[in-house]
Amino acid sequence: MRMRRILTATVAAGLAAAALTGCSSGDGKTDGDVIGGADAPENATKLNMWVFAELHAAVYDDMAVKWNEANPDKPIDLDVTVYPYQDMHDKLLLAVNAGQGLPDLADIEVGKFSNFVKGDKPPLADLTEAAQPYVDDIVQARLDLYSRNGKIYGYPTHVGAFVAFYNTELMDAAGVDYKTIKTWDDFENAGVTYNKATGKAFSVASTGVFFTETLAIAQNGGQLFADDGLGDVAVNSPEVVKTMEMFQGMKEAGALSTIPGGSPDSEEAYGAINNGDYAAIVYPAWYTSRYVDYMPDLAGKIAIAPAPQVAGSDTLTIGGGGTGTAVLAGGKQQDLASEFLAFAKLSPEANKAVWEVLGFDPVNMSLWEDDSITHNPENKFNKYFETNLFDVLNSVKGGIGHFTSFSNENLPAVDNLFRTVALNEIYENGTPAKDALDKAQSDLENELGQ
Q1: Which tens digit of pLDDT belongs to each residue from 396-409?
Q2: How far apart are CA 423 and CA 244, in angstroms?
């Protein structure tokens, strides 16, 4: 028997969702490939798992090996099937509705998670008890993202804390010191100075993804939905209007510019950033992997720093994107799958792999204090960046906020409208932010029947 990863169809279809997930969506392997794998004991219990990211499958394979080494009395034989992003979620929802054909475990992207936790009896297993050996070390805001009514239904993959990435070579040449940037006002002033000195873009006003702005909305005490993010759509609330007026002002002042591909997390954008066309990116910590994988020319030139703040806000950062891994309820191996999943997602061993293999910021904060891991000079991410990611994370860990709107079941509709209409109106057409948001609110109320 073997633990094996089976990839079905071309995974490129998931790229449109990559920015929201934060975990990418695969690497384009073809239908039916069987790769990787390691021998499982003859008495192993088979567990089937569905995912939409090839890199995640590599980590789960590794954790299955470690589980079997640590638990010889209850070994597993893990089959991980990688589907394209949308196909996997559609297939999982169909299986849930049919009550058959379900895997034991599945990755569920944060924007899709609410589809699986509706009603009094969600089709996902309650993972609260299985988390207890690790829960004291886990970033609570990320557990909250996949919890309902006091029960945990999914385990997070990373924190996704927003940070700032600065090209120090470009900024030093323009006479701009990134260390002086603390607030969004500082960020705007630095951007205007840089733009005037170089004639080039400083940072990004995304038209294809509604993401960085949510950090400032949270810092301003707002949500995209009423009732602290859990209720009806409220994209024209005072806090959202204030935030979008701030970003529109930065765009008009020259501190922000649109980018090829519509967001920093696109193939066209990687080339532009690697070419030195943009000096600053505010994005979740998982963006470290994009620099290392797609922007090799910038090695040794990028400093990681805390994201800009709203003065006086207790929220220093929020988690952006994410994948909640769940156990499907009612399966014969539900208890074993839950215990394995807690080990594979929450344990120090798992979170070490999340950092060393994926370059994501681990949700188990006990690792944040382990210098042998966080400051390992041989780590490819530590080699690439001027500053250490975990030094930044530790400086803001007391202010990691929970943006409840990310778990609202109507987030996909809001996200789609901003990506296709509102952001272009605000950043490209110059429509006053409040007018664009009032129109977005009206359109969403009609679409959602609210």
Answers
A1: 999 998 898 988 88
A2: 9
List, as own/partner pairs, every contact residues 179-183 make where C-beta atoms lie below 8 angstroms and the sequence separation is at least 24, other chains included: 179/305, 181/305, 181/308, 182/306, 182/308, 182/309, 183/308, 183/309, 183/310, 183/311
Question: Which residues on adjacent β-strands are paired with residue 329?
Answer: none
Q: Give the separation between CA 139 and CA 156, rounded to whole angstroms.
A: 9
Q: List the one residue out of 63, 108, 83 whose CA is nearest residue 6.
A: 83
Distances (CA, A) of 300 to 174, 194, 273, 279: 18, 20, 14, 14
Q: What is the mean pLDDT of the chain?
A: 90
Tokens of 266: 């696109």
- SS in 3 state form for the chain? CEEEEEECCCHHHHHHHHHHHCCCCCCCCCCCEEEEEEECCCCCEEEEEEECCHHHHHHHHHHHHHHHHHCCCCCEEEEEEECCHHHHHHHHHHHHHHCCCCCCEEEEEHHHHHHHCCCCCCCECCCHHHHCCCHHHECHHHHHHCEECCEECCEECCCCEEEEEEEHHHHHHCCCCHHHCCEHHHHHHHHHHHHHHHCCCCEECCCCCCCHHHHHHHHCCCCCECCCCCCCECCCCHHHHHHHHHHHHHHHHCCEECCCCCCCCCHHHHHHHHCCCCCEEEEEHHHHHHHHHHCHHHCCCEEEEECCECCCCCCCEEECCCEEEEEECCCCCHHHHHHHHHHHHHCHHHHHHHHHHHCCCCCEHHHHHCHHHHCCCCCHHHHHCCCCHHHHHHHHHHHEECCHHHHCCCHHHHHHHHHHHHHHHHHHCCCCHHHHHHHHHHHHHHHHCC
Low-confidence spans in the chain with pLDDT less than 70: 1-38
- Give me the amino acid identity at 271: G
- What's this model's pTM, rounded to 2 decimal places? 0.85
Distance of CA 158 to the CA centre of its chain: 7
Tokens describing residue 303:
């400093």
